[in-house]
Amino acid sequence: MIDVDPVPRPPSILVVFPATGTAGPIDGVALVTLDRPKVLNALDFTLIAELTDALETLDRDPACRAIVITGAGDRAFAAGADIRELAVQTPASLLADDHFHRWERIKRVRTPLIAAVRGFALGGGCELAMTCDLLVAGEGAQFGQPEIRLGVMPGAGGTQRLTRAIGKAKAMELVLTGRTMSAGEAEAHGLVTRVVPDDETIPAALELAATIAAMPPLAVIAAKEAVNRAEELGLEAGLEFERRSFYLLFATEDRREGMAAFTQKRKPAWKGR
Ligand code: CO8
After folding, report:
1. Within 13 Å of residue 109, how many CA atoms lie on the same side as its CB?
2. What is the 138 CA–ligand 1 centroid distance (Å)?
């Protein structure tokens, strides 16, 4: 028998760092594109592995201060987990391989993540967008958790994050009926940071990322963590966490620089220390 090397699969994600804007490279900003447009960027296990690895690599790079995640093409951010791959899973294979534990690694990324959503963000795609810290949506975007129509339910945070974002009444309707929600409805209910014309989705997300990338890095990391804790802690514990993070930032060179620059009426030069 002749050994034939399998044809290597092309990468499912594309990383550009620094990302390119209309005026050239954007300092500190990375653009990560989910790149399976023929299947509406369905999130199969390989893509999720590549995505988590790429996000962790960028997160370890101090030059990277904000990451925009988007989907290739104009039809979808991601239309969910890859249904063909899910169709052959068993409880034992899911438990043994535990691919979904990677989702928790995305949550541990300290660099701000901005989802730039054009078209469908469904099932795992909606869950990925909600795992990001900010969400910019094109006006034609559609969000939903249609898993119920496949005989299952959300499995990567949909019942928890959607409920926290838009409240029980709306979340229950979306999860139990599988209907989609427009970008306008998602914005009205607090899921979306900003809705823009479809063609401006990525530029608007990059602009937001550039603004964040220009802020003092340690304060950004601490502030992101504190806002995310608001979803997990009671008010008293959350306020305590916020106060301690605030005190801690007084140990940074950037705090001294920020306040000195204000009093000297000049632009601060952040060091990330
Ligand atoms: N998985 C695999 N392939 C998909 C997916 C998907 N989720 N979505 C679309 N595709 C494929 C289609 O099969 C089709 O491929 P082909 O041309 O080979 O037939 C191609 O993408 C284009 O799609 P359509 O022809 O269906 O395009 P339409 O415009 O007619 O419809 C829809 C667009 C409405 C988005 C439709 O494709 C659809 O309903 N997709 C499935 C949406 C869905 O049910 N998502 C939830 C999946 S389950 C899930 O996400 C569970 C999450 C659990 C944890 C997640 C961890 C990763």
Report:
1. 29
2. 19
Q: Which of 80, 84, 77 is nearest to 37 (CA)?
A: 77
144 is catalytic: no
Comparing CA positions, the residue from 118, 119, 122 lying closest to residue 130 is 122
Query: Does 257 qualify as catalytic in the annotation?
Result: no
Output the pTM of the full model: 0.95
What does the alpha-carbon distance between residue 266 and residue 77 come to, in Å, rounded to a whole number? 40
Return the bridge partners of 142, or none.
Answer: 120, 182
Do 41 and 76 meet the contact criterion of CB atoms below 8 Å apart?
yes
Q: Give residues with Cβ within 8 angstroms of 203, minimum separation 6.
A: 21, 22
* Confidence check: pLDDT of 41 > 60: yes
Closest C-alpha to ligand 1, atom 3: 39
List the catalytic residue out of 50, 127, 187, 242: 127
Q: What distance in Å separates the CA atoms of residue 83 and residue 218, rounded to the nearest whole number?
A: 40
C-alpha of residue 181 to centroid of ligand 1, in Å: 16
Beta strand pairing status for 24-25 and 20-21? antiparallel
| pLDDT, the chain, mean | 95
